[in-house]
Amino acid sequence: MPMHRTPVFHPVFLVLGLALLSACRSGENTAPADERPGSAVPAANAPANAATDTSGFAERVTSAHKAQAWADHEVLSYDLVLRFRGSERLRARIHYRTDGTALRIERQDGRVLWFNGDTVPDAQVAWMAAGDEASSEASAEWPSARFDALTWTYFQALPYKIADPGTRLERLPGESLNGRSQDVALLRFDAGIGDAPDDWYRLYADSATGVLQAAAYVVTFSKSLEKAEEDPHAIVYSDYRNVGGIPLAHAWTFTTWREGADGRGVFSDTLGSATLGRFGFRPAQAGEFQAPAAAQRVPAPEA
Known about the structure:
CATH architecture: Clam
Shape: globular
Radius of gyration: 18 Å
Distance between the termini: 15 Å
Largest sheet: 13 strands, antiparallel
């Protein structure tokens, strides 16, 4: 899965079967939510995608998600609670630069995680518990640190990532999801883009609004594409509400997914879910994405 910065990198997106093991910040814009996502006001400069996107899929999705308004904000903060197979996986407040260059995740247990593509060498992730000193055993205490840093924020920002440099879109036949017609496109990545350039995503955007409804995907980290395609998964977005005029999904569902005999996607068993809330846009604060020197570094995997 790509990491959220330009140029694009892939995070360590481990297989879900393995990886699925606070007060509002001052200055946040917590504009009332409006229940009309996807209203057709085009973004002023919604980006075009690679030449394979002859249908304008990327432009329509980024326009529906108000990409220009998104880019006009510096930081998005929100709460995230993830549950998989009946257990809580993560409860945290996330602060994410909308240009994708940095993030900070504050877990409820006091641990804090940083990614800063501008200041952390070699696209590293850094984390520490409150008051901790660096330790050679620290990585074992949060083995999914890189996964947590780069996966959940990518899912949240996916509508704004499909036109990143190094992406390729191919239009597929339309499908239906939850009784609504969907425009469908296959997202792939150029060679050498990120940790897992063989990953792919089948994107579902509502035909009437252009708002992203779901993404099926495979995970090729630590395995071949052929092996990964034996177990595709999907994320389904729901409970869209407008925050400051931008449609943001307040609920996710993770499911198994397969391609049916007719070539259409089949969403089946539920694997997990997420609730998101207390969204707010705000200016960046000095030093908030800079990890302390004592924080444990988690580098990108070697090629």
